[in-house]
Amino acid sequence: MNKNKEQLLNKRYKAEQRFRLYGQSAIFMALLFLTIFIFKIFSTGYSAFQKTWLIVPVNFDAELMMLDENPTKQDIEDADYYEIALQSMWNLDPNANEDQQNQLKRMVSYFFEREIKQELLKDPNLLGKTKEVYLTASDDLDQVFKANYPRDLPEDQRRVSDYQLKIFDQLVANGNVESKFNISFFTNADSREAELAGIASSFMGSIFSILVCLMIAFPVAVLAAIYLEEFAPKNRFTDFIEVNINNLAAVPSIVFGLLGLGVLLAIFQLPRSTPLVGGITLSLMTLPTIIIAARASLKAVPPSIREAALAMGASRMQTTMHHTVPLSMPGTLSGTIIGLAQALGETAPLILIGMVAFVNTIPGSPMDPAASLPVQIYIWAESAERGFVEKVSACIMVLLGFLIIMNLFAQIIRHKFEKKWS
Amino acid sequence: MNLILFTFIVLLGFTSYYFGRKKAYTIQSTKKRLTALPQFYGYYLAIWCAIPAFIIFSLWAIFEPTIVKLLVLSDYSNQGYLDDELNLIYEKTKALSRGQFTGEITPFIEASAEKYLSLRSIAQSSKVVIVLSAIIASVAYAYKRISSNSRTREPVEKFLNAVLFTASLAAILTTVGIVFSLIFQTIDFFKVIPLFDFVFGTHWYPAKAFVRDSSEALDPSMYSDTFGAVPIFAGTFFIAFIAMCVAIPIGLMSGIYLAEYASYKVRQYAKPLIEILAGIPTVVYGFFAALTVGPFLKELGTSMGLEVSAESALAAGGVMGIMIIPFISSLSDDVITSVPQSLRDGSYAMGATKSETIKRVIFPAALPGIVGSILLGVSRAIGETMIVVMASGLAANLTLNPLESTSTITAQIVVILIGDQAFGDPKTQAAFALGMSLFLVTLCLNIVALRVVKKYREKYE
User: Fold this and answer.
1) Which DSSP string do the residues of B358-381 spell out, in sequence order?
2) Which of A8, A300, A347, B229 shows the smallest number of beta carbons within 10 Å?
């Protein structure tokens, strides 16, 4: 009898331990996913911040460039650089046949002409002399140098030929290949060539969209929250508004994209693919988030504050505007920042309003066509070239960096400025 | 031009505020009692400056383009052009006046462009005149009123109240906008495709409607068997089901552990860390699923002799499940912590272990709230777009094999609407019809979930 009881107790304790273990492993799994995830992104992405350069001697031959003696700055600007650029690549292997010469040319980006031109513009005295110039390596060689490229594949399955690899290895052996911090990733617009593609255009697109979103969503949401929390009579209509807000917060984001497409583009005829339309669409999406946060922080202001103001003879509007709203601002602001962070990571609605267009210029205003950072991730992820994989991860790192900064900022505002009522 | 005018009006507003306040001080200096604080006199004047400006600006924005268009096109009125042709002419005229026209310039269009420009400049200058005179008139009227020391606080507050009320309508307007943008296209779609074919058809192949020659007349028979949404709906729910298979056990167990077992320190760190999963943009999950999980599953399958598609439903659903974990864990954590302590104490007093208390007492008590949080998770899984677009297939297969590729409502909307759309094409309309069904399904889920959670909260408050 007693033994039986003990057995039962042991069984129950074991069940207890098992249950506890389930909980621990669930947490462990969730954190494991997070770790794998971050590790994967960082391990594929960090190399994109480095860029491979080939150091190639260039002979600035005035004759080949069709320049007269003592050229003016304008002449140098207009000169023909293609020939000397081509020559300097061909000189890497003087015995190359025509096909091999073509392959030599494809070892650098198609920007190589312009890079050589920049060099001469910086120092016009180079004319007639030879100088070693840094040229952007093609994205495949870039990947080879970063050891991301399967060199042991059969040649016909590679985009890099054996010949190119041979020349490249020679250059490496001579110390003529260098890896430097990839500034152009931050300053270039999007490009079809992975080695030249940068995030500047999508970054500006994101900034403009978020600004438009902030300028629309913040005032409207705060005013709406003030009305609903402080002035609205309790009736069916305000209940209806409330149900509406809660529902909107859970409507899938792609539906907002359809709204932008069907109303903003088709009816109001706003310009397609622009951060203006993107920002308006995102602002409709963030509106409920900010309203809910602002209402919560208005609710947290204790009634004694209102009563004190009213007792001093302030009107209800004065009480609200001078006391309640300023006290609720920290909570509202941090809610706003979190809402904007969500909007910053949103992709689907922007795709529907056409912000996936290929944009190779940096937008200067919200009315110019642009992409945004998450859309850029999508565009690059859909590209087949190997060089884009690390770009995607790097772009994700930049985006995550911004989200972390925004969320930290929201936390700081909340902890530093929010008044604790006890 | 508009910007300058706008700045000028803002400056005028500030000036009127200043004059209003000054007037109040003069009234005060005559030993009369003011009816409100001096700044209300200022606000009063500023509002009287802003209202006419706002009304005229919006009237202009609404009517100017249509009136200018009517006047420009009146030249062409009796030449037997169709509406579409007139619109084209008008677009050409506008492009030419902006200097962006690249086609052949006919004298007609050139004349219209000149007319367009002159009309625009007339409209612009008359706008300036009308706005400024209206402002001056209304401010003068208001100034007269405040010099007689009439009430200013009440009208100002009433105005502010009206502004606040209008802002709160934004939420309703957005909902109306959503319904409005979806419903017309959807109705047009069902005029061509019978509702029955859409809801019960088993072949989804919108590309068939796309390849048709645009000069061909619409032939409804061509669309039969192209827009059957069953595979899409099935795919959507299937992927959502896979996602919930991942998210419910992990999310629920972590929620329970965090609420009942975890020490303060563990909770302090683990909770925000898990919530990071919810803050990661979905496009990042999509990339992760497509680049890492998909190929990994394919390789794993091949090593076990299974045929796994690189774009399997399992990869998309699994990653989506990871995304939903934090929604379920933090909501169920909240729900469980709000179960009153007395229930726990009662159970412990009867000799129950912690896990027995959780399973037999707390879980049943918290069940409505947990169901609500799961429903919200399901609604999120159904509406999730980027993961499925990037990681699951785009061809709509009717399958229940998680290793094959399927497609979802959201993925199809993106596939159809990416790039240029021709409104009025059944294919474009199909996307809106899908959007409508998505909106309705998630709406129902949300309403039920929110109601359940709310009822539950009220019970223990």
Assistant:
1) IIIIIHHHHHHHHHHHHHHHHHHH
2) A8
Q: How far apart are CA A102 and CA A96, in angstroms?
A: 9
Question: Which amino acid is located at A236 in the chain?
Answer: R
Query: What is the torsion angle, in degrees rounded to the nearest 10, for the CA atoms of residue B339, residue B340, residue B343 and residue B348?
Result: 100
| pLDDT above 80 (res B396) | no
Residue B270 forms contact with A (CB below 8 Å): yes
Residue contact A247–B446, C-beta within 8 A: yes
Residue B356 touches chain A, beta carbons under 8 Å: yes
Q: Which residue of A has its CA nearest to B382?
A: A252
Residues A382-401, mean pLDDT to the nearest whole number: 87
By percentage, how much of chain B surpasses pLDDT 70?
93
Separation between Cα atoms, residue B413 and residue B382, nearest integer Å: 13
Whole-structure pTM value? 0.88
Is the pLDDT reported for residue A321 higher than 50? Answer: yes
Same domain, A207 and A158: no
Show residues of chain A in contact with B168, CB under 8 Å. 223-224, 227-228, 232, 241
Q: Kindly state whether residue B213 falls inside one of the protein's structural domains.
A: no
Q: Are residues B249 and B340 in the same domain?
A: yes
Write down the residue that tokens 């005029």 correspond to: B191
Q: Report the chain A residue with the minimal C-alpha distance to residue B186.
A: A262
Residue B359 located in a structural domain: yes
Under the banding of pLDDT at 50, 70 and 90, the label for residue A35 is very high
What would the 3-class secondary structure string for B234-285 be? Answer: HHHHHHHHHHHHHHHHHHHHHHHHHHHHCCHHHHHHHHHHHHHHHHCCHHHH
What pLDDT was estimated at residue B210?
Answer: 53
- Chain segment A141-182, per-residue pLDDT in tens: 888 888 777 777 787 777 788 888 888 888 888 888 888 888
Cβ under 8 Å to A: B residues 361-420: 376, 379-380, 382-386, 389-390, 410, 413-414, 417-419
Those residues whose C-beta lies under 8 Å from the C-beta of residue B435, and which sit 6 or more positions away, are: A254, A255, A258, B182, B409, B413
Q: How far is CA B50 from CA B54, B140, B278, in A?
A: 6, 13, 43
Indicate whether A262 belongs to any domain.
yes
Are A160 and A220 in the same domain? Answer: no
Does B66 have pLDDT greater than 80?
yes
Q: A13–B353: do the CB atoms touch at under 8 Å?
A: yes
Query: Is A403 close to B279, i.e. CB distance below 8 A?
Result: yes
B250 contacts in A (CB within 8 Å)?
26, 29-30
Specify the residue for token string 């088993």. B202
Contact with chain A for residue B353, Cβ under 8 A: yes
What is the per-residue pLDDT for A284? 94
- Assess whether A228 and A81 both reside in one domain: no
B159 and B239 in a common domain: no
**Crossing angle (nearest 10°) for helices A2-45 and B264-279:** 40
pLDDT in tens, A183-197: 888 888 888 888 888
* A164, A213: one domain: no
User: Does the pLDDT of residue B329 top 60, yes or no?
Assistant: yes
**pLDDT exceeding 90 applies to what percent of chain A?**
41
Using the 3D structure, point to which of A180, A208, A227 is the last residue of a domain.
A180
Point out the residue among B165, B279, B418 whose CB comes nearest to the CB of A227. Answer: B165
pLDDT tens readout for residues B204-232: 877 665 544 444 555 556 666 778 888 88
Tell me, what's the pLDDT at A301? 92
> Whole domain around residue B454: which residue ranges?
230-459
- Shared-domain flag, residues A294 and A368: yes
**Element (DSSP H or E) covering residue B410:** helix B409-417
